Amino acid sequence: MADALLKIDGLTKRFGGVIASDNIVLDVNRGELHAIIGPNGAGKTTLISQLTGELAPNLGSIHFDGADITALPVYRRSALGLARSFQITSLFLDFTALDNVALAVQAHAGHSFRFWRDTRTEEQLRAPARAGLDRVGLSNRADVVVANLSHGEHRQLEIAMALATKPRMLLLDEPMAGMGPEESARMVETLRELKRDLTILLIEHDMEAVFALADRISVLVYGRVIATGAPAAIRANPEVRTAYLGEQEAAGG
User: Fold this and answer.
1) What phi and psi, each to the nearest 5 degrees, are found at residue 118?
2) Which pLDDT tens digit goes with each residue over 77-89?
3) Is the domain of 178 the same as that of 252?
4) For a Cys staple, 164 with which of 58, 104, 216, 246, CB 3.0–4.6 Å?
C-alpha cells in the first residue's frame, strides 16, 4: 500500500512450542489511528515489542517509511520516529511532571544525564517539555511531584514523554488500563487530538474507546490477524464476534 508508514510482512515469533505471532501481515497507513484488539494472550504486546526492537522475530520483516528496520536496535528505531509510550523511560516519582518530560527531551537530544539540574534551568529543555504537557492536558500539573499524580495522569505523562522524542508514530499499549470512566474519557480526547498530527498504533481493551477513535481495526487471536477493516465492518464480522466481541459484550464491555 503506497501510503503505508508501517508495513509488517510475515512476522512470526515463537517461544518454545508457543507461536505468539503467527505470520502477521499488517499495514498502518500514514495519519491513521489503527487499533489492535483481541483477547488476553492473543500476542498483542509481543507484536509491539517486535515493532520497537525489544524482541527479535523468528521470521518476517518490518518496514518503516520504506526502510527495513527488522534488525535495528531500539534506539535506532526511536531516532527514526517510532515511540512506545510507557517504555520510553521510567517515571521519576520524586521529580515534577515538567522535570520528567524535560529529562526525556534531554535524553532524546543525546545530552548527558550527569547534570540533572540543567533540566530545571535550560529553557531549550523546558519549553518543549511544557509543550508536551500541554498536548496531553497536563499543563496545569507541570509543577506537581509525580508521586502525587493520579494513575491516569501518570499515563498522560508517559505519552508526553514519548512526544518529547518527536515521534512520527506512537505505539500505545493499553493506555487506558486501570482508569476510571472520567480518566478514560480524558485519554480518549487526548488521543483524538494527537491523531490529527501523528500516526498511532493502539492496543486497547476498552472497546468503547477503540470504536470511538480507530480509523481501522485489526483483530488478533492466537497470534494471528483474523480481520482488518473499518470499525463498522469489524463490529459486523461474524468471525470477530465469535472470537472476541461476543465475549466482550457479554461481559459488559
Assistant:
1) -60, -35
2) 988 999 887 544 5
3) yes
4) 104
